[in-house]
Amino acid sequence: MEFKNKILSNGLSVIGELNKSAKSAAVGFFVRTGSRDETEKINGVSHFLEHMLFKGTERLSALEVNESFDRTGAQFNAGTSEENTVFYAAVLPEYLLEVTGLWAELMRPALRDEDFDTEKNVIKEEIAMYKDLPHFDVVDKCRSLHFEGHPCGHSVLGTEQGIDKLTAEQMREYFTRRYAPNNMVVVFAGDFDWAQVCSTVEDGCASWQQQAAGRKLEHFEGTKKKKRVEKKNLVREHICLISPGVSAQDRRRFAAFLLAAIIGDDVGSRFFWALVDKALAESANMQFAPMDGTGVFCSYVSCGTDNVSKVLDIIRSVFDEIAQDGISQDELRKARNKLLSETVIKNELPMGRLAELGRDWLYLGRYQPIEQDIKNIKAVTVQDIRSLIKEMTPGDFTQFSIGPPGAV
User: Rounded to an integer, what distance in angstroms lies between the CA atom of residue 181 and that of residue 12?
Assistant: First the structure.
């Protein structure tokens, strides 16, 4: 692996990890903007804007954009989170420059009024679809409850009412401010020619203007509130628990990933043996989500309504035992092997490596080779995790539940 980087005069970062033995190449435009960078008035605009980039430019229609990707055989998509919007593609190396040039053009979309009005209905349909998925809905609502009063509590999708009120002019203003070159990084992974990709990026992006695109960073402990809502047509209880975690910049994030696996991995975790294996819950897992300046541990549990009280009691006992006794060396060994396997397998392909490169550059401002990640995972000790448990107190959580009427 050979790392390359360059910063254009307008502040746009271009980075790449060259792997000549790879049979493919990947490119991604990472924009440091998401729902946490919105106001209540324009909540949902980041995700809406992601959609609008595929509607075309002054030169290309939406159909021509799709055809341009299609003829290269690219595997392409985009995604919006609370913190970042990412546009990416994996291609055969001979098509990398063409796809890179296409993405560069799409990063300056037309944002036509007629496209905006049409896409509003698509966004509202997507919001409605996710409301029909209780496992998604409960996590989204619990996150908002946990981060109440903090911008990280903004829903990525927004609401139907908010999207109805959003104007194209508000979107254009947000785009100008947030899609600035000094708030983006272009990432390459796999087999590519560094000089050629840099030239392509400069041709398409050098004229972009810098903007003030800051972000307020602060750790947030969470509200620790508890809430339940009833929803017709449900037959199971869906429960989300969120407690504070360390940030993406914190060296303890590797210990946090391991702790989440020990407590709530899909197989072999404490939640698994206490709840899923005993058929008390259909699903019970925990994930660690490091963020810019803060972080969370998020647990999701689904169970029959008759088991809710018992399941919650067991969850509390799991957290109590972790707080009192810590974790064992055997638990750490198993969790470490899982995380190492996941890390290595994900990073074997340029597309998987692309995500890691972009994330590290956005959060850390530096290149982190996979060998360093492996070393950091292996360096975590039982005492490191015990110290993290003591400081983060995962058993002190915000709780949101969705279930059938009159069940609890």
Answer: 4
Give the CATH number of the domain where residue 179 resides: 3.30.830.10
Compute the distance between CA of residue 287 and CA of residue 118 in angstroms, rounded to an integer: 36
171: nearest Cα among 181, 158, 182, 183: 158
319 CB neighbour count, 10 Å cutoff:
21
CA distances from 380 to 272, 291, 344 (A): 23, 20, 17
Q: What are phi and psi of 283, to 5 degrees?
A: -145, 140
Answer yes or no: are the C-beta atoms of 19 and 191 closer than 8 Å.
Answer: yes
Q: What is the DSSP letter of 210?
A: P
Q: Which two tokens stand for residue 384?
A: 């490191």
Count, in order, helices (H) and strands (E) of the chain.
Answer: 15, 11
Contact 350, 189 (CB under 8 A): yes
pTM comes to 0.95
In a domain, 309, yes or no: yes
Burial class (CB in 10 A: 0-12, 13-18, 19+), 98: middle
Q: Helix, strand, or coil here: 188?
A: strand
pLDDT digits (tens, 9 = 90+) for 252-280: 999 999 999 999 999 999 999 999 999 99
Distance from C-alpha of 96 to C-alpha of 56, rounded to nearest angstrom: 20
Distance (Å, whole) CA 81 – CA 157 = 9
The single-letter DSSP state of residue 272 is: I
Q: Which residues contact 279 (CB under 8 A, 6 or more apart)?
A: none
Domain that holds residue 399: 226-403
What residue spans of 326-407 are helical by DSSP H? 329-347, 350-364, 370-379, 382-392
DSSP 38: S
Neighbours of 238 (CB within 10 A): 23
pLDDT in tens, 272-328: 999 999 999 999 999 999 999 999 999 999 999 999 999 999 999 999 999 999 999
Number of compact structural domains in the chain: 2
Residues 295 and 352 in one domain: yes
Residue 90 · residue 75 · CB < 8 Å:
yes
